[in-house]
Amino acid sequence: MPNIIAFNSPTLSPQAGKRRTLSILIPALTLLGVAPLSAQTDTAAVDEVIVTATYLQRRPQDIAGTVSVITDEEIQQTLSDNLADVIRYQPGLGMDSAARGGNEGFSIRGIGGNRVLTVIDGVRSSDMYAAGPSSYGKDSFEVDDLKAVEVIRGPASVLYGADALGGVVSLRTRDAADYLAPDQHIHTDIRAAGSSETSQRKLGATIAGQSGPVGSVLQLTQRNFAEQDINGPGKLNPQDGESRNLFWKTRWDASPNQTFSLAIDLSDRDIDTQLDNELSSSVSRSVGQDSTRRHRISLLHDWVLHSALADNISTRLHRQRTDADQQTEQTRISYAFVNPRNPASFRGSQADRFTSLEFNQDTVSGMIIASKNLSLASATHSLVYGLSYEHTDTERPRDRFDTELSTGAISRAIASYPMAPPEVFPNKTFPDTRTVRNGIFIQDEISLMDENLIVVPGLRYDRYQMDPRKDELFTGTGDISDWGGFSISKFDEDNISYNLGAIYRITDSLTAFAQYAEGFRPPNFDEANQAFVNLGHGYATVPNPDLEAETSQGMELGFRGTSDAGRFSVAVFDNRYDDFIESELVGMQDGIMLFQDNNVGKARIYGAEATYDWQLSSQLSWRNSVAWARGRDESNNSELNSVDPATLVSGLRYQPSERWAIEGIATVVSGKSRVAADDQVTGDAYQLLDLIGHYDLSPSASIRFGLFNLFDTQYAHWSRIRGLSADDNDAIADRQAPGTNARLAFNFSF
């Protein structure tokens, strides 16, 4: 939902917190269902937004499913610094994170990771790679460049193909026209902002102009930041980070019917971390230097031709490269220089260790999308169809070497303890992999019964090819020939996905909708072909050439209503997931634990969501959003930890004039008592109150401010603590959210 608020109270016991949360949620849900939306007032209608995630420009209420839209205005109003901030007030959406990996990826209705597809201007973003605390995720996007974030809640493989198992997050960047007022030919601005949560300082500048048929925008943004604050006794490793982003887009209206756009997006991010958590009797110094480079170039051609086959054709060509490198330098005891003839060397020797763990992806993609409106008999059809091609190269180089301080000797054969079988570097845990995705799709909006009934069938065919390329760095990780060896395999699979939606207009202001949609996700580069052995610690990961694609089937139905004063929506959903790919212990051999990715999971997630926006008067608006879901691992007959607790967000905004406004945003989260295992941590209920606003100092200067967690509540986002042992007090303390924090932003245009 758009702008909302957070309501806070002193810390409660789990039982009291649950009772307090229910006492707030139940009246709120009742109000959502019975409030008089049909009441006539003199206020203006709630602002409309346009969604493009379905490849046709539609209002959210004209889509046979749920699509959430966060506009650039809302991103600015909430002073969002990253993608996690963008969805802060969106119940049912989340962001997974890791220690050094930062924000890893989106979660939609309890499904996350690479099961949710993220695209920017139609370009697939780099995959999330889970490597413990050194994961790689979605932090290389500058939110100041975004025009909107659109989220398809639920399976969406018919339109987006592979990996849209749980949904799609579509990031749309700005054009010059988004900055220019009518008859304005040039716009420039400078931006400055600060955040106490991470000691962040942001400085940015924009220049946009229109000269005849050509419009361009150039935007520069730099951020400096530190580690996040924690409310309570926990403490994160000290960090010093910096990000730099350059965004340029040019649009050329070559004729009344043809438009060309060229976009270049360059993002660099560097973080230095003092790894205090790694210090021990063996490690006296540990520092990390992490870098991420994401470079994208996109060319778009839109053509209005009104031919027999298509009214409009859009051609998109993209190239994106992401290079991530997490380096660690340690001073520690090393066993790489043990001499079997010298027992004194068994104590190890002081050494400097350098480690480099890379994750690199290069994607080239193309897409042609066509649309056609036509009338046949008593029905009208709005067709969208197209084909897509994606070529991705993925690699995971790893290097490590110890330098003995007393002799200067260097070794890349790293043993974990005296006389242990060493791990030899450089190596790769999975082979360099080339992935090709081809797809062709068609979807039709069929209007019947004087446009009171719209039926939306869709069909897509996908072919997925994965070609691993074995080299000496991959095969040099160790000898596991006794446990399956390095018998990696190619994958060549195809899939057909369907959807069927319907929208029925009950009255002029009330519609019902329903949708069945499918999704699938083939095994990726490391799940199918990861082959790694650590004989010193007694485990090995072996490939699995028999993996099958994960699939999903989603059902959703609901109602939407509008009036002069507001709008509401209520939806229930039931999503089923088959053949989840998970790593499991598959056996023991000669004292070595064998792990392998297998299709072992079957899950069901069901729930309900509702929104209610009401313009109470010309100065006062009230927005609400609530989400509840429950997930079951049907293979193990246990709860799914990935599902967030029930959440209500409610925002009351007062805007007496265009010059200033203030809004309170209340977030109420229920307790989380159902977890996968009895010894895992549960979540306490909590309530937050945030206060945001803006004031225009002049027509060209404005300030925005935000006070978050106003009552200094100690709490943790469920995604940060789920799966932890209930007895791991240190880890739980380290994953608490910040206490009261503030943000301030200044914008000056000329």
Question: What are its keywords?
Answer:
750 residues, mainly beta, 22-stranded antiparallel β-barrel, five-stranded mixed sheet, 37 strands, disordered N terminus
Can you offer a commentary on this structure?
The strands form 4 sheets. The protein has a 22-stranded antiparallel barrel. A 5-stranded mixed sheet has the order 1-6-7-4-5. The chain has a two-stranded antiparallel ribbon with strand order 2-3. It is globular, with a radius of gyration of 27 Å. A hairpin with a 2-residue loop joins strand 15 (349-376) and strand 16. The protein starts with 13 loop residues before the first helix and ends with a strand. The chain has 8 helices and 37 strands. It has a domain at 1-9 and 617-750. Helices cover 7% and strands 55% of the residues. It has 750 residues and is mostly beta strands. Pfam families: Plug, TonB_dep_Rec_b-barrel. Residues 262-710 form the TonB-dependent receptor-like beta-barrel domain.
> How would you state the average pLDDT, rounded?
89
Gross geometry: globular
End-to-end Cα distance: 32 Å
Task: Give helix % range.
Answer: under 10%
Number of helices: 8
Q: Which stretches are poorly predicted, pLDDT < 50 over at least 5 residues?
A: 1-46
Largest sheet, described in full? 22 strands, antiparallel, barrel
SSE class: mainly beta
Oligomerization status of the protein chains: single chain
DSSP strand count: 37
Percentage of residues in DSSP E strands? over 45%
The value of Rg in angstroms is 27 Å
GO molecular function: heme transmembrane transporter activity; siderophore uptake transmembrane transporter activity
GO cellular component, one term: cell outer membrane
Subcellular location: Cell outer membrane
Organism: marine sediment metagenome
